[in-house]
Amino acid sequence: MSRHSREKGKRGEREVASLLREHGYDAHRGQQYKGGQDSPDVTGLPGVHIEVKRTERFNLYGALHQSKEDAGTDLPIVIHRKNNEEWVVIQPLKDWLQMFMKGEQ
Predict the structure, then answer these.
(1) Residue-by-residue DSSP string for 31-88
(2) Which domain holds residue 26?
């Protein structure tokens, strides 16, 4: 991975953490905050493992598998954005349904 790609990834992580803080979450970049290779890219959503991808060429299932492998008991999600587009959240449907059903109770 080139230095430019790593820097773009770090900027993406900072951007996601900032957006989460704007919505009341105590979010930080994961490796910077907790360390460790299996740390989420961003911490701050309880029970959720966040993998951030800020890239033009996106491997959806590769990113999701990475998040699942590192998530432990947390729900794995991938937050992705490419240039000139909005952030999107990707997660397995069964996990989304689990979260959605909890919100209806």
Answers:
(1) HHHT-STTS-SEE-STTEEEEEEE-SS--HHHHHHHHHHHHTTSEEEEEEE-TTS--E
(2) 3-104
